[in-house]
## 1
Amino acid sequence: MTRLNRPEVYGIVFVVALVVGAILVAGANPFEVARAAVQRALFTRAGFLEALLRTVPLTIMGLGIALSFRAGVFNIGMDGQLIAGSALAVALAPWLPGGAAGIALFLALGIAGGAAWGGIAGLIKARLGGNEIITTIMLTYVATQLLSWLVRGPMQEKMRIIPRSDPIDAALRLPVIVEGTRIHAGFLVAVLAVVATAFVVRRGRYGFKLDVVGQNASAAAYAGMNPAAIAGMVLAVSGGFAGLAGAVEISGVYGRLQEGFAPGFGISAIAVALVVRLNPWLVPVSALGFSLLYAGLGSVAQKALVPFPLITIIEGAVVFLFLAASVMPARVPAGAKSDG
Amino acid sequence: MTSDPSERVGFVALQAVTKRFGPVVANRSVDLQVGAGEVLALVGENGAGKSTIVNMLSGLFMPDEGRILMEGQPVRLHSPSVAVRAGIGTVHQHYMLVPTLTALDNIALQQTELGLGRLDRAALAARVRQVAADLGFSLDLDSRIDGLDVAQQQRIEIVKSMMHAVRLLILDEPTAVLGADDRRHLFEVIARLKGQGTAVILITHKLEDVFAIADRAVILRGGRVVAASRVADLTAAAIVAHMVGTADSGKAEAIATGSHRRGGAPAGATAVCRVRGVTLRRANGSVAVSGLDVDLNAGEILALAGVEGNGQSELVACLAGMSRPYGGTIESLGERSDGRRWGAARLRALGLRHVPEDRRRYGIVGPMSLARNYLLGNQDRPAFFRWGLVKTRRLRDAVAARLAEYQVVAPGPETPMQNLSGGNQQKTVLARELGADTRILLAAHPSRGLDIKTIRFVHSVLEEARAKGAAILLQSSDIDEIMAVADRVIVFSDGRVFGPAACDTLSRAQLGSWIAGHQEVTP
């Protein structure tokens, strides 16, 4: 028996009422909006494939979030780490060999770039005790501006027209694995990442250390671990996941560096991981769910059923609802669990 | 003083007050009273029930039975603000000051009645100066708390508590952190308050405080009042005898197990840990112990005794590799405390085990399973890992076997630690920390809060480890426990170190007077 907590039920009712009210004020029919979103995401091939494509980076980043949040370290700056990883990989791409080795190296460069960017925040946290929420957000601004400069300056395409880089060598592109779609081999990378992360979290020494640091840092110090070093390190590790996601997106989808190619993925990944309570096995499920939501709402926006800002509001509301719903069973009153 | 204080009518009185916390009785039918212009010393060992009395008078707890009277009228002190309004001021042992604020701001923090969020700082400062002048203090109100020493902080606490019309001032261990001069100043202030007709309750464990300033003393043991008398009629020996008691026969019997062996470490004992010239500092920066020399030998139990806060915890933290001593060196299992490799991980790898003082904070991770808790501190031992992954089945089997051996009542290794009772949690920690390869065991209050049966079990486990050649440091404030299981004892008291001395040549009274800060029991 799970008893629902009243404040959260009120919260959900309030948010639903707010969104429905906003849609009505905008002069649209809330049911029509919902129908259009669901139809596009679930019942059209294009919508579903678009969602699947987005599931890949969200899964990889959700895993990185799960690792850092398990250690009680709040990496809010995955967007910046994704940019750093992507930029490093693209910048060094001309020197990479072709074929599978080249692709592997390309992805490794993405990991290295993201890990370095996250590692800056990690070093600040471990050495100086700087709050990672602040530093990762700030480093995201830095990375965004750096990207903006790179694609207009040193890394801009030879034509110098659009702010973007030249495409990477076709030999470095992840191959399409389902004929007639854009579903690429990054899918397999994501599956691999899920399995590896799940093993580390469930059975690994490293996962154990992360959990101890996250749940009782004093006990970690007592047991001979270095909580500050572990917390700093996990920022680099989760940054590596963000960088990997960026490299996969470039190698699998865009083929070049450009601005805004993974808009807000870092923040979405937080919701993805939190909704399944940081369980790596469930992260891909959650990532697919969120991707379907974005695909559906994207079509609502295209059809101009409601003004565009409202789409963002609906997105936020749905994330809130999922989070509230996932928190509710966790907050069973203390007395209820002793009978076991 | 014009009249004998003990003849005055009790200004504040406790009548047959009992306070329980779950199964633990903190105060059992306590009667005490303090008169206006009287200084009452409340004396007793740790856990004697002094703090509970303070907390009931300052409105933090309500008595379960009995009543509190003020000027003969029953009062219900159901919150701290009620107690303050009734005229009871409290200076807690651990100061409640915000380190980054100035002295004046700290006093302003609690002046809620001064208006709707707006402070008249000038008026407040004037009042604070007036109160301070009455007490004979000169305070720098604009300096930050973290720039003041403990004695100055204490003065601010006293002024803070005196900002209302205070008729009873409670000082909880006020001399614990003061040097000799500051202590004398404090006593002058107490004498001044007394002259103004304020009642003072002084909580202390130091006999010299009692004789220096108190009119009457109430001695507590095990939550009961065992003696209440005019100080003039008391001797140090009598107070110690009351505090320590004669051996509580039931408990002593429970503690003394049949296999008990006494006689200290065997001749030619090998020291596995050498402490040389060590200085320890408390968290607030004051020196707790200096120039400490002691050896920990294989096959002995060395008890570390004394009132808490005198550096025992700091010594254990250093020995555990969780910190380095402020001065001097520790050499343990071949590692030196000033070496690069000094740390809990390295010492654990060499055979150090540690039953921590604060089990919940350090010893366990509540939401994790018993099996995963068993990995705590064992996370670098190859026995349970292959390629960085836990050997799940092997761990589960090992934990299940250990839990059975230690008679832990739990459904199984996958049970979350937090579902276990305190006693079973402690047994689980002991099961984890006491393995075949334990060379040094630091056991900090291993039996605190446990029932007699479990205490007996804990002691048998310690004795077994000693028989296997482990060197055991037993941090304890329980004289019965020390006399029952330890071979040698060392006492930290107020910056001084007594011992180490062999337990079988030491009387309970001598140990008690060391804990109270006296070299010898005066006849």
## 2
Amino acid sequence: MIAGLQSYLLVSAILFFIGVAGVLTRKNIFIIFMSIELMLNAVNLTFISFSRFMNNLTGQAIVFLIIAVAAAEAAIGLSIVILIFKNKDSLSVDDFDVMKG
Amino acid sequence: MAANTIFFMIFSLVAIISGFVMITRRHPLSAALSLVVTFISLAGLYGLLAAKLLFIIQILVYAGAIMTLVIFSIMLLNVQEEDLPAEERIIERVSITTLILLPMIYIIGRSFTVIKDGQFPEVSQDFGTIHSVGMFLFTTYSFPFEVISILLLISLLGVVVLAKRRI
Amino acid sequence: MNYTVFLPEILVLITASIVLFGEWAFKSIDNSTEKKVRNIGFVTLLGMFAALGVLLSFETTGYGLITSFFSPETSTFYSSFVLDSSAIYFKIIILISSILTVLISFKYVSDKIKNVGEFYALICMATLGGMFMSSANEMISMYLGIELISISSYILCCFNKDHNKSSESALKYFIVGGLSSAILLYGFSLLFGLTGFTQFPQLASTFDKFTAPELNAIFLIGVIMSIAGLGYKIAAVPFHAWAPDVYEGAPTPITAFLSITSKIAGFAAISRFFLIFNNSMSEKLVVLVAVLSVLTMCIGNFLSLAQKNIKRLFAYSSIAQAGYLLMGLIPLLMNRMDDSASILFYLTAYIFMNIGCFAAIIYFSKFTGSTDIEAFAGVAKKSPFIAFVFSCCLISLAGLPPFGGFTGKFYLFVGAVNSGYTWLAFVGAVNSVISLYYYVKIIKTMYFVESTKDIKFELPNAGILTAVILSLAGILILFLVPYPFIQMAKMSALGL
């Protein structure tokens, strides 16, 4: 057995849905934040495996850009988290339910 | 069995397991550390896929810079056990999420199996090097590349605005 | 490569830089915040007007028709960026809405916001993101436009310094935004994997390959995930849950910005994305869009009925409006370009009605000190003109004549009927009647409920007054002489 495109895509899909599950189930801001990072990484893995499969570097250039955006987003996200923690001394996302409605 | 496949199995198992560990930890610090493990094994997968530049960037930027930032802010806030939110109704939430997500994983995984010939073709030596990816970034993707600079300016500005504030 | 096409964006970017880095230069001698805000806001307006002027000159000289969608050699940056007539139209309405947002923000900003330069710079950057979204001819450029407008909005939501809800709303927005941008990217990655292209015209051309049922499954998943990711920007059900909390917590001018500019940009992106579908696929998508439209209208309207806070009410009402607007995407998907102009026309009317409402909300809530609907009791006696315009805008939002909202909605419904979706137009009409209830409730509170408190009202400042007059003029003109505007929208839709 040789690991082909399908196996890589499956791994990335599993990682993506682990991230979704983290966002939907947890209340801790940090863990929700890291789950979003995990989802972005799963997307990157998909892009890279398609890019290898098609022998087409477009996918890798896209991943480069996505990593840059993720870094920018991480900085903003963490400063919002710090702001909220200073405000109310808690890490919970109160009465906020992504599943609600 | 090719060495590639063995490495693939190791890296993907480690990535999935530590990803799962990440969303189940109570304290964010241990979650962050297991996420670092996921990122490093993902870097390994990128290496197997001949993405040489991204292999380095994944370790430097993701596992290095971004996760250091996360761990730094967890330590800065000095998160104690009592600061952690009570994960109330956790069983209910987990079961609803599983009910929603399992069919989705099944459908998506099922749709991937139709890719019959998933073997990776041979690629040239300079596939995924800084030079070849850079060529794409500065030609086809030069517009997005320029936009990234504005985006980084915004995030710089945002961090200054948000962190400067005293409450 | 032709750099003229970037002139409007470059002007907005220069304005942002001037406002951001030159904030110190705007200090007035007597150190009053109000004058400083006025100077900075004036510079912002100047820059936006310059960009608007350039765009209008493009529009009148027919520049957009030269560089159309399917001629990549005339678009710039390896066809990442395209300036066709629909992009020009979307950019014009995005700039108009940002200008009006800046106009209504002066008093609010000088009262409540400390970092004035950053505030206006971020509004410029967010506008820039919207402009990029309407011109994006490629997945990654579109994604970056979305991130530009989203990240600026996260920061803008935090700006209210004496409001705890402000930063919490930013967090909610951030989480939902991050989640949906990841979903969008996953969809894009599948589409990329199937075709090997990221440019929309090329994607459209490789489309015929996916008639095989197996490949179709992956394709469908990719498309649905992309629509899910884009749907959050316009707050369509089921991606609407963030809207009420964010709208309530954000500073009021930013609420206006989110409900107008951000929504227009979202529709610009969605209509550009929908262009890649040829006829075989679009039949399935039309059903999906119709279902989304019905859900969005009904849920938005029913949840509005129970709202006590006016900003929350406008969140749900803007969800409902997104439902009507989604109806306008159906003729677009069916390639009936004449009718798909209705979405452009309704968006134009929507700017003026919403900005009138938000100008009034900012003005009234400054003196009543609260954004509850009950606090608006009896304000009509204190400030009859603003209350009158507010009522006109509300009636226009409900879709009654003699205002632009009626004309816009009429064209949307006609477009749906012409596309064979009579039942959808009927649902839309029923929903408009329901929405009348909560809009009229506000008018009733303003005119017929006696105020318990005795509050002194100052005269509105020039910014709010201008915005209010412009919005009244806008909705009246769009009703009385709609023909030139419809013609313009039709010309622009041809570029789509």
